[in-house]
TrEMBL record:
Gene3D superfamilies: 2.60.40.3500, Copper amine oxidase-like, N-terminal domain (3.30.457.10), Zn-dependent exopeptidases (3.40.630.40). It comes from the Bacteria. The lineage of its organism: Bacteria, Bacillati, Bacillota, Bacilli, Bacillales. Residues 60-106 are annotated as: Disordered. CDD domains: MurNAc-LAA. This is AMIN domain-containing protein.
Length: 408
């Protein structure tokens, strides 16, 4: 690689490449852009603020192809490939001072990273660092806490929030705006070899994820509210219409509301003994809940599924079975249920359809509406009133509910 003072064009393998900053001469020292150097050569750049030195590491690979952490080795082995030992003073803007004279490389310490800051952001604790880090983490109880160890690192002299470990055993700050996280403590931990440890004190058990963003030089401890393993699922069954609203009138003058309720009651009876499913019916008799009250009920009980049963009516020539959904999160449920109950009707399969219906639009859980057949059809209507068809449909619905909830 060739760089020229005050010029942003560098030559890598005789090919010109533009740099963000040009090398500069300051007080007899040359400032070079270390980030550009590291990215261009494919090496890791580590700045040790205590000894005011920059170390460049290349990657070693073992026989299995896995990348090892950089270790102090001679240059032929692929370890340390360069050392910059500037005069006293901080580097700025990703650059470091290169003295015009050659210096003897210092002994590389075991430390590969410096911790610069710990802070709390929304739902996460962030560790800012430079160099290389490989954190370890685990959870403890009594009291509940998340522990993150960062071996082979040290607190920088300018670490924030500052703490003098010669005077105090640990640093600590409180967190007041999180449901579980109460405080963050940090210290040096270990027997013969001590390393930084961060402890997140919790009011209750909480899940977490560790994300090491090397590009941003940030280690993020992301807090995630635990999802409880559900042992009981709530399903709202809705028999369409009812009471003063008869729904469609069949060609034999029978009201749709009776068909809807008959099927729903059969589904209830099939699932009644399954302790994993809590069934709630919008109506179990000839009453009329409003459309808004049906969806409001399902939302209020935080139902896992909502299923409404209807029979259709149109022209005499129209017949068949249809399943409706409104929101995208209901489509999977609609497809599953239709694939199970439509075939057992023996009627024409009109497929799964999108339609903006009140009960499937205003609910907040997967919600579908079944139009089992057409009461206005001479083909469908006689079949819809038979116990045989209603039993088959109810059995398919019960099976579909269990499958959607992943219950065997």
């Amino acid at each position: 690689m060739v760089m020229t003072l005050d010029k942003k064009t560098a030559y890598l393998d005789n090919k010109p490449t533009e740099m963000v900053k040009a090398p500069t001469l300051v007080s007899k020292n040359v400032l070079i852009p270390l980030r550009f150097l590291g990215e261009s050569l494919g090496v890791q750049v580590f700045w040790d603020n205590q000894i005011k030195s920059a170390f460049l590491f290349s990657s070693n690979s073992n026989e299995s192809g896995n990348t090892e952490e950089p270790k102090p080795t001679d240059p032929p082995d692929g370890g340390l490939i360069g050392v910059v030992d500037p005069e006293e003073g901080e580097s700025e803007g990703g650059e470091t001072e290169v003295p015009p004279t050659t210096t003897v490389p210092p002994v590389i310490p075991n430390v590969t990273g410096n911790l610069l800051e710990v802070r709390y952001e929304t739902d996460m604790v962030v560790l800012k660092y430079d160099g290389l880090i490989s954190p370890n983490s685990f959870k403890l109880d009594n009291p509940k806490r998340i522990v993150v160890d960062v071996p082979n690192t040290q607190y920088s002299g300018s670490f924030v929030p500052a703490v003098d470990f010669t005077l105090a055993s640990e640093g600590k700050f409180l967190v007041t705006d999180h449901e579980a996280l109460q405080s963050v403590r940090y210290s040096m931990f270990g027997d013969s070899v001590k390393s930084p440890r961060f402890v997140l004190d919790l009011a209750q058990s909480w899940d977490y994820e560790i994300v090491n963003d090397a590009l941003a030089s940030e280690l993020r401890i992301i807090l995630k509210k635990p999802v409880a393993d559900k042992s009981i699922y709530t399903v709202v069954l809705d028999a369409g219409h009812g009471g003063t609203d008869p729904g469609a009138i069949s060609i034999t003058k029978r009201p749709e509301k009776d068909f809807n309720l008959s099927v729903i009651l059969k589904v209830r009876d099939l699932l009644a003994n399954d302790e994993r499913i809590k069934l709630i019916l919008t109506r179990s008799d000839d009453s009329f809940p409003t459309l808004d009250s049906r969806s409001a009920l399902a939302n209020a009980v935080q139902a896992d599924l909502f299923l409404s049963v209807h029979a259709n009516s149109y022209t005499a020539s129209t017949n068949g079975t249809e399943t409706y959904y409104t929101r995208e999160d209901s489509k999977e449920f609609a497809n599953l249920m239709h694939s199970l109950y439509a075939p057992v009707t023996g009627l024409k399969d009109n497929g799964v359809r999108y339609k903006s219906l009140s009960v499937t639009r205003k609910t907040t859980m997967p919600a579908i509406l079944l139009e089992v057949g057409y009461l206005s059809s001479k083909i469908d209507e006689p079949q819809l009133w038979t116990n045989e068809l209603q039993d088959r449909v109810a059995q398919a619905i019960a099976k579909g509910i269990k499958m959607q909830l992943k219950l065997s």
